[in-house]
Amino acid sequence: MPKTIALIDYSRCGPEYCDSGMCNAVSACPYELLVQETAYEAPMPRPSLPSLCQGCAKCVVACPSKAVQLN
Predict the structure, then answer these.
(1) Would 12 be classed as within a structural domain?
(2) How far is it, in rounded angstroms, from Cα 61 to Cα 3?
(3) Residue 33 domain boundaries
(4) Which of 11, 13, 25, 37 lies most in the core, judged by the most C-beta atoms within 10 Å?
């Protein structure tokens, strides 16, 4: 069975809805698997770490635009 991981739907992502443009999902990830280089830019998975996602869904809950989903 494939592992459940968090994925970002960039068509729904809106960092402007987060505090000061800093992505809430990035802050919520206890494994630091998402990164946002500057305010108001969309977050990205760390290149070498997406496979480390534990499927905890903390990023999903934190995202106000519901752009992060478990898949």
Answers:
(1) yes
(2) 19
(3) 6-70
(4) 25
